[in-house]
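Anyone? Bumping this.
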Amino acid sequence: MKASTRNHRLGPAEAWFEKCGWKPFAFQKQAWKAHLDGKSQLIHSATGTGKTLAAWMGPLLDGLAHPIDAESWIKVRGKPPAPPLMALWVTPLRALAGDTLFSLEQAIAGMELPWTIESRTGDTSAYIKQRQRQRLPTVLVTTPESLTLMLSYPESSEHFRFLRSVVIDEWHELLGSKRGVLLELALGRLRTMQRDLRLTGLSATLGNLEQAMEVLVGPGSDSPTEIIHGRSDKKMVLSAAIPENIERFPWAGHLGTRMSTPVAQAINNAATSLVFTNTRNQTELWYQQLLQSDPNLAGLLALHHGSLDSEVRRWVEDALRAEKLKAVVCTSSLDLGVDFSAVDQVIQIGSPKGVARLLQRAGRSGHQPGAVSRLLFVPTNALELIELAAARKMIQREQLEAREPVDSPLDLLAQHLVTRGLTSPYHRDEVLIELRRTFAFSKLSREELDWVIAFAKHGGDTLSHYEDFKRLEENDDGTLQVTNPHTARRHRMSIGTIVSEVAVQVRYMTGKNIGTVEEGFISKIKPGDRFLLAGRLLEFVHLRDSIAWVKKSKGTPTTVPRWVGGRMPLSSQLSQGIREQIEAASDGVFEGVEMKAVRSILELQRRWSRLPKANELLIEQIRTRDGYQLFFFPFEGRLVHEGLATILAHRLSRNRKITFSMAANDYGFVLQSASDPNVTFDEMRSLFSKEGLLDDISAGLNATEMAKRQFRETARIAGLIHVGYPGEKRSGRHLQASSDLIFDVFQEYDPNNLLLQQARKEVLRNQLEWERLQRTLDRIHQCEIVWTNPLRPTPLAFALLVDRLRERLSTETLADRVKRMQADLERAADAK
Amino acid sequence: MNGHRLQLAGTSLLLHPSGAAFWEEESTLFVADLHLGKSTSFRRGGIPIPSGSTTRTIDRLLDCIEALNASRLIVLGDLVHARCSWDNELQEGLARLSDRLEEGNFLLVEGNHDLGSRSRWEAFSIQRYDAPHHVDPWTLIHDESTERPKSSSDDAVYLAGHLHPAIKLSRSGETIRLRCFSLYNNCLTLAAFGSFTGAKTITPQSGQTIYAIVDEEVLALA
């Protein structure tokens, strides 16, 4: 069949497209066909290329071709009968549900289907939720949490009886997280209920598309699948704002806003811009700075980040859609979702630290088919220009970052096994089969399952230890279920994996909400202190009823709020790209404007020390006023460098009396000591050995503290933290304990608890990039060590030298530390 | 002997690293906030917390009595965590404690957590008192914020619990949090003694002295 021939199966969709004056893209038709052929699919494409309709017309065409018998339709008084639930649309952001619902509804109307559509998220009113427990619409737009909650009601199997397709929007966002596993578990349940369920994942382009497909349908699934490649002819223009006098520009590590004038110009030269920064603080600072650079932007410039009041955020989003704004300064809070068709330029302040993220951000501009995505990169230091040059290369080679799926999180399993027991009694064997069909738990052992069931049943493997605890109960026939209505109710309240930090509401004395700051920040500031939030300078008045009351203020900020949300380390793709660019520079090759711009700085680096080739590890040793400095440059991202610094410091201090302080950034790390460590070349080589790695890193790090921090999430997900529910009032008071305290109690009285082990494992994975650290050591093993003694700090070393956030590796006892701190305090007091 | 000796109310108190205070002259041990049976009430409330902390707390207290050769024990409130804390582990622990002390030498100044256990004390020969309870030269209370008269002419010396005080020390990026005793305005607040109790970080006022528990020592911080 020729491509131009109208495929009769796709006829109705094509007809509607024609009526709208559109023409379906080849990938859209491919996706529709795949769906009609009964396939599950992963559609990947840049944003704004027609993914939604690629995914959605399939289920609609199927609905036209195979309508549900009228006797199964849902009848409601006062409304025409409608088919039962046939399709689910899962979105990671509940804020997106409204927009999505609107565009899906248009297509339903266009196809003249008698379908109903509603959304169901955490924002849905109790009244509608109650109604939805009686009857569901034909199409439901929902989130992973709400879907899981719906599956926890006994009537769910009846409700989902006619379900045929599930579309998962922004699948890449869920893939690498526990929320993704929550969804995997829900999909596993649905697949058990409906064998021929068709799943469609929508994703941005990723480094591991095959795996993303496998996670979606489950490993070893026999259902047919297809990966649909979206349009790749989307034009993208990447450019960089090159500072005029690059030698005077900070080499590295500076967070200044001195590029604000060219940024303001760029905003004026485009219709509408999104200005992405990497932290909420920078958003606030840049907003101020841009208004100062160009006062005409007042009223046309807004800001948007996760700590602003949701009403403020919604206002900004609406104004952006209505084309009332010239630019919005934002964080990743605008990375996803809502398509703002007016946006024709993205400005990225500072390196996005990953190739895929750069692409995703660029794709937020030029949404209309045929339009061009434009991204202007604004470096915050000179060396960041190398990162853009590296990103270009990697985009050309289509080498993007992978999102690694989460492997068997037992805290979530503990939650799931209770959720599962809310509907009807189940057998271990049946649940094990179902779990192993999900990617996350495909390698789950019978022992692990038994442990988690025991944990949910009586708290652990030793029955006598937990005699009064009961969550999951075992019937005489060996089936498991939850019978206690209090347990059931409390459990439903705690479904999900999102652990919010304690945020304190910031409110004007007059009563209007502005946003939130972290509790830790507010507990440190004093009345009268001034800080920026939502683009306004606020003066802290007092903390009452857990609300930070403020009033408007004039002058300059006296303090800066801190928000959790760590800086992302440089991705391994970008790291590799940088090593290649530097190698090229060492051969005298400077390709592209960015590399030409940093040429003078890199040549300085070569003259003073060396530009390492990709198979070399550069070590620089210098002596400064502060002591002896050993710099290492593996270019592997901050987290790996922190881990390496700890390991090296620990190994070096084992056979000499020495104290090291350490600093790390994305390019390398430094060890500083008061005395000369006198490292020989042979010893240097041996420092990078993989032998005893885990022991050395655990000894060097405050591993317990890190595990404790990680345990906050584990404890919340596994249901160790009491969640009060409305109406419960005081009766829950005596059940409150912090996760830190619970961690200590487990450590002391149940040290083999698998949840503790999981927290430790997650520290390695999330906070140290353990796999990557090991790969780095393997790579260094193949590298030649180049050791130089420059006369002064080189451009690469400079940033590390001025870094004030240094960790210390010390062997003093707690009492010694306290006494030393106390001596300091006394000295300070005497000096007053 | 480990601990910090403090001159107060014309007598001597030894602040012990366990969190107890020992009145040497009268061979009396003061402790506060044991929260015995807390893990049991968690389990009964549907939260899986391992047991063992109640027995551990009792063992530590008996060790303390032994080491200091104390003959009288006065608990400054929150001996038992909640009404639903009562189980075999708790009863057996309290019995061991009660056996170690002569009749009439196990006193409890009632704390807010103890309210649900009133009918239980007699079985363990525990004498219950409302706060404030006077044992010359001390005025014994649980919660200073509610049980101490507001009058300024008040020159009594108070011993209290309830607060679970801790102190945070920081210096160039290094932070340590330590359980502590606090002496302020003629009131000595004891550290929480229980093994499964949290602590609240306090900000010292001027004139407040903090005695921090550092492993096996108690250090005075001005």
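Late reply, but here is one note on the structure posted above: Chain A touches chain B through 50 residues (CB under 8 Å).
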